[in-house]
Amino acid sequence: xxxxxxxxxxxxxxxxxxxxxxxxxxxxxxxxxxxxxxxxxxxxxxxxxxxxxxxxxxxxxxxxxxxxxxxxxxxxxxxxxxxxxxxxxxxxxxxxxxxxxxxxxxxxxxxxxxxxxxxxxxxxxxxxxxxxxxxxxxxxxxxxxxxxxxxxxxxxxxxxxxxxxxxxxxxx
Length: 172
Fold this sequence. Notes:
The protein is an all-alpha fold. It folds into 2 domains: 4-61 and 69-74, no CATH class; 80-165. It starts with a helix and ends in a 7-residue tail after the last helix. Helix 1 (4-15) runs antiparallel to helix 2. 69% of the residues lie in helices and 0% in strands.
């Protein structure tokens, strides 16, 4: 739960940079609404999100920008190309010889369900770009669902992701 003092300090800091945020800080109703929108974040992730925003944003952020920055900064998401690299390295090492290995990242596991281990092991230079493109597209769909569940804090979406990938319990 976000401490109101931490929220007020961050709002004051952002108000020193952006006039739009200064208006929010001066308006009791608007600042209460912003706090309500962001109150489920913990203090540390909120601070990290605000610092990230202040370093990278040229224009005033919305509460959704702060929420996304806070959640992404505390839970970095593996990119699809990085996930593909992990899978390809395991294929080269022969880890697909007895079937598909199990990965910590649930999105890799669910993406690999779209392929059989023989198909991955026996990739040729002709079909490798096709399999790679399919892997990246599927992985990115799971990544977007996970990101949306984190950002919106939607219990229905979290439940869907739980049923899809038996992923670790999302907090919130």
